[in-house]
Amino acid sequence: MKKLPEITAAFWVMKIAATTLGETGGDLLAQTLRVGYLISSVILIGFFVASLITQLTARRFHPGLYWTVILSTSTAGTTMSDFMNRSAGLGYARGALLLIAALAAVFALWKATGHPFDVTRISTLSGELLYWAAILISNTLGTSLGDFLADDSGLGYSGGALVISTALLLILVAKYRTPVSNTVLFWTAFVLTRPLGATVGDFFTKPVAKGGLGIGTIGSSLLLTAVLTALTMRAIHRERESRSTAAATAPLEKDDTVNTTA
After folding, report:
1. pTM of the model
2. pLDDT tens-digit series, residues 154-186
3. Gyration radius of the chain over CA positions
4. Per-domain residue ranges of the chain
């Protein structure tokens, strides 16, 4: 069953929009509304579990549902990372190293199960569970990396975004100019688009005095919600067109088979 999207340029645009919204949305709940990182993480993990169960029980690909789960991993990843690094006192560097180890463990389990790493070939429940586990951890890891680049490294929000954008550009070049596995490049890009979203989100929300635009978590979240909603509606429209085309051509292909057999 096809339950995951095609990996196109539109996919990456939506991924960055979703992860940026995850950063501003998570900060809105934990900081602006003063819910706190721990309670926010519990709430958002609950949102993730509910959306994931719906995704896992779906019989086909639903763009709106898929991107809801992506957004839930991004918002939950933001508050979980902040809780680990700030409330629990791990710090950005140690938090990132811990999450790298967790992601490596998921990939090791993934390899041991024999499921393909190629996300375009995932078609089983256990394979999809591993896929979403890797996404949740990678989005949490991306938050820690983004915060490390923006704060501990001294690069600031714009500097961190520039470094990550350069790395993503190199991955794009490697896709077309090197024999490096597309699966390796996909997961590397997937992890890096999260810190890009984190640094861009902080750039939108933080005050001008701290190097941001000063839009705030509420204004930034509303703007990004509008952008992601528009992109999701476009994806839903394209998916419906694709199904309509497939349904229209299916009887013709069947008739051609019958005529050839005859």
Report:
1. 0.86
2. 787 778 888 888 999 999 999 999 999 888 899
3. 20
4. 9-244
